């Protein structure tokens, strides 16, 4: 919703360049990227629930300085730290979904979870536009604060789901009840916070929406055709990459379609319809790439997805700063075409993972460690 109030912030603080105000979006996304790594590490040490409670509380409190800001510096700094603590809901939430679902229903569960993460950026500017028009840009932050308060209340109803944390809690309870310190579990001597953080930072280097949800049963049947693991009798994690391959083709189709129909001589409905293949492709890539990483890392899913968040939100923070200049220089047709060509270049990546992902996973120290712990 922040972008809905950019004009109001620029006018109130007498800022000459709109780009400076857009830095509020960049700092927030950089905070999300960093927070995803740090907080997901903490969730693998202390459990999901305490990290959620503290993060949601601090995220809500950090909207106050933005709502009450008297200068743009306060807005930029507060939004960075707000994004930092908001990052836990992006990185750790898929880990929570993985904690409570098995391979058969994980894709469906992640599809339901992704409704919020994918539709938030769509609905946010629409809701924010009305709020800004009638109440002003500061009320965009008051609305976020209200929603954060509601989320915090609901979070108290959520139980711990992370199995290592549950085992540690059970061990401590037995020690307290019996007075016998010999009670232990295999997670008592896990890595320290700094070690987990280091692992999360280097792991990406080691491993290399509504429509999508509606098609989930069909996609699940396609995935089920993938050869099954002889031990578990279930499709390997690479089966989820089939949907990513399909999505990677649909995204540039939608981008090309939009780029060359977004002009006055073409009926307005055509560029709008381009959102169907683009949105479907985006949904398939996001949902099933998340499912692939969650299925590969299982108990370490939160930190694996945090590594993914670094790249995703890092790029998302930088590109808006260049986007306006790119579109004004190249025009909607060629700027969109350039993005579509980049998307075409990236198409082979999921196909490579579909064919060779199994060999990549066998070389991952974290997956080897997970398999040893579960054996």
UniProtKB/TrEMBL annotation:
It is a multi-pass membrane protein. It holds the Pfam family MFS_1. It is found in: Membrane. This is Major facilitator superfamily (MFS) profile domain-containing protein. GO terms for cellular component: plasma membrane. It comes from the Eukaryota. The lineage of its organism: Eukaryota, Fungi, Dikarya, Ascomycota, Pezizomycotina. GO terms for molecular function: transmembrane transporter activity. The chain crosses the membrane at residues 20-39, 51-70, 76-95, 107-127, 139-158, 239-260, 266-287, 299-322, 334-354. It comes from Penicillium nalgiovense. Keywords: Membrane, Transmembrane, Transmembrane helix.
